[in-house]
Amino acid sequence: MNLPFPPIGLLLLALAACQKEKPPPAIPPDTDTYTLAIPPGFPSPAIPADNALTQRRVALGRRLFYDPVLSADSTRSCASCHAPHLAFSDSTAVSLGIESRAGTRNAPTLANVAYQQKLLREGGVPTLEMQILVPFQEQHEFDFNILLAAERLNRIPEYVQMAEAAYGRKPDAFVITRSIAAFERTLLSGDSPFDQWFFQGKPEAVSASAKRGYELFQSERLNCGKCHAGFLLTDQSFANNGLYAVYPDSGRIRLTGLESDRAVFKVPTLRNIALTAPYMHDGSLPTLEAVLDHYQTGGKAHPNKSALLKPFALTVPERTDLLAFLHSLTDTGFVTNAAHARPE
Q1: Exposed/middle/buried for 28, CB within 10 Å: 0-12, 13-18, 19+?
Q2: Are residues 50 and 113 in the same domain?
Q3: What pTM did the predictor assign?
Q4: Non-local CB neighbours of 96 within 8 Å, separated by 6+ positions
Q5: Cα angle at 89 between 87 and 90, to 5 degrees?
Q6: Taking residues 22-34, what's their average pLDDT?
Q7: What is the CATH number of the domain that holds 219?
Q8: Is 234 strand, coil or helix?
Q9: DSSP secondary structure of 5-72
């Protein structure tokens, strides 16, 4: 029977088993250090001790990220749903997996995923290394066994050489999950016009309209900045935003079993938001204008709807200013960074 979502308990058991796997003590250390270009105003992200960033690990993860060999029929890769020019998100409501199977949720951006905690929409996965397993087991994505994927990689001399150089072992589940996570931690975005103004002291970087839009965004009248806070423009909390009165997707309750978590989802980052349409957990709102329309209504009645949501009215100039601010969050250098692109 094809379930719309994998049983969360079984998924977490599988993830926990992988997380316990450690490299054997005999692995020689790789001193080919990779130095992250941390944007101004950003803290240093936490890097696991067993997966320190190196040039070789990042290079291997980058190659695997773009290689469809990891999916059951070798047609889909991580990049199929997380495209660089879209800030590593997708342009469809839900992405297509193998055999053109429609997914169940909108693909989020991977920008600054190194800082994200409690991954996935319900927050059930604590680390990037564990998250890499999700598309493998998901029927609507790779629908494959990571051990079989490792067998494929062991038949490709280049991957055997790269894995041994990066981790001192042949391709296996440890190498796959750690290397892709290493690459994803390099996807730092923090040089948008907003950043240049707010963090780098360049007032000319954004328009007066965008600055007014930011003030409006932070105002108690709209309350946007209460959840979309900090350098990530998300407080990484979980909330119901009144998208529906009844949700087909039950959300975080699948993880916690708490009725207070029904139809509750992780608050997304707004960085590069102009590039990541369509919006919401199910991709049901096609444009930023539609998102503003939704929030102006205060959202539909739901028992778990955030108390921060309330109707508000915007004048035409205010709406223009708010959209100008949201567009100022686009980091064009990030989406054109050759170091993140598909390797030749």
Answers
A1: exposed
A2: yes
A3: 0.91
A4: 76, 80, 102, 103
A5: 125
A6: 58
A7: 1.10.760.10
A8: coil
A9: S--HHHHHHHHHHHHT----TTPPP---B----PPTTPPPPP--GGG--BHHHHHHHHHHHT-GGGST
Tokens 């790779």 correspond to what residue? 142
Instruction: Tell me the three state secondary structure of residue 329.
Output: coil
Report which DSSP code applies to 98.
G
The answer to whether residues 136 and 11 touch, using CB atoms and an 8 Å cutoff, is no
Taken as a whole, the chain contains a residue count of 344
Does the bond joining 278 to the residue before it have cis omega, within 30 degrees of 0? yes
The answer for 88, left when phi > 0, alpha when psi is -120 to 50, beta otherwise, is: left
> In angstroms, what is the C-alpha Rg of the chain?
21
The tens digit of pLDDT for each residue in 78-134 reads 999 999 999 999 999 999 999 999 999 999 999 999 999 999 999 999 999 999 999
Peptide bond into 6 cis (omega under 30): no
The CA distances from residue 51 to 23, 79, 108, 128, in Å, are: 10, 22, 24, 11
Domain boundary among 174, 189, 204: 189
Note the helical H segments in the chain: 8-19, 55-65, 78-81, 128-131, 133-137, 146-153, 157-167, 173-184, 193-198, 208-218, 224-227, 253-256, 288-297, 316-327, 332-335
Write down the residue that tokens 């949720």 correspond to: 105
**């047609």: which residue's tokens?**
75
Pull the structure tokens for residue 171.
Answer: 């391709």
Q: What is the DSSP letter of 96?
A: B
Query: Of 145, 161, 189, which residue constitutes the final position of a domain?
Result: 189
Residue 152 is which amino acid? R
For residue 210, give both structure tokens.
């965008």
Q: What's the pLDDT band for 10 if we cut at 50, 70, 90?
A: very low
Q: Answer whether residue 338 is part of any domain.
A: no
